[in-house]
Amino acid sequence: MRIGCKAAIAATLLSTFLAWQSGHTQTEALGYFPDRASLHRDLWQSYAYVTSGEVNPNVIDWTVQFASAYGREDLIVSIVERYISRPCVSEEPFDPEKIREAIKAHQVVVISETHHSADDRQRILDMARIFADEGFTYYAAETFQDEVFTAGIKTGINAGFYSSEPFYGRLLRELAHLEFKFVPFEARLSGQVEGDRRILREQVQAANIIDRVLKENPDARILVHVGWAHAFESPEDEYGMAWMARRLKEMSGIDPLTISQTFCRANGDEAVLIRGADEGGKDELSHTDLAIGIPSWSFLDGRPSWHRNLGFHPVPVPAALRDETLPVIVEAMPEGSDELAVPEDRLLIAPEETHVLMLPDGTYDLFSFTQAGQMRGPVRIEVTSLAE
Length: 388
Fold this sequence. Notes:
It is a single chain. This protein is about 30% helix and about 20% strand. A seven-stranded mixed sheet has the order 3-2-4-1-5-7-6, sandwiched between helices. Helix 7 runs parallel beside helix 9 (about 165-175) and helix 10 packs across helix 11 (about 245-250). Mean pLDDT is about 90; it is low at about 1-30. The protein folds into two domains: about 1-80 and about 300-385, no CATH class; about 95-295, 3-Layer(aba) Sandwich (Rossmann fold), CATH 3.40.50. By secondary structure, it is an alpha/beta fold.
């Protein structure tokens, strides 16, 4: 009976997704979330696709990458690991302090993430105070909506698309606490454009960073957070394609320090630091100055094991927030959060599943939401180390 129920749920979600997808371009999908309902709509669309059994393994688009925003990396692990399959040669453990010396000599640092990996964002969070200590005061992010620049929006779900994911939310809160100035730079291309759309996107991204920061503050030190290949500073190829970091270098005259988190996969369960051959490294880096080799995911109670390394605690979803027949989105909001805050954790869980929330010490109000928008909660909980 449970198997039949799950199949019916998946069919309903997929039909909703296909109807939605037929009338929306990806540009429109990666949009602005003015409220929690609009964010939940896209979470449900992603969940419908990754649980449909019809995922194209050769395409890793937003519907796959967004699974981390609802705590379900376990649904996409077999898809995403093939996109970073090169084994790292280096066995040098990654330590955020090792980045300090490298950034001292650079005005701009460009670091990449895979949009499906919350652990990439955690590593940037681990380096945030180091950047602040070394005089970096601007944080430019691909995820940001232009409203971040024009309306002063910073850390809520309405700040950007991927930044609605809980670990990205933590990163933004820490950067705001460190008084970084936030800068959106994504190219907002709509309708028909002349030439190659991909090339134009990279040009506009670089131009936006220059126009919004360097024109008025030519000595500004900037941390630029991008996805995937936007951090590449290799020269233009035979098709005229050069990525954002290269174009920023050429247009500004500033040689950025580029760091990739998409280069190779570590052999163990810890990240490793990849140095180029000119620094004695054994890996053949050709697109960036440094790289961080990422470990494969392992799971406990349905959630990535590395959460526990941060001291987070497993918290079962209270029965009062669950539905006997329908999956629900559960959000853990720190006490006193406003309605647009990014939660400390978010989990999409089906009736028969036993996945847990992963939370640091604190007081939280828990809410759940069905796809139809029915809300349950709040259920207030206190999470402490003494409770285990």
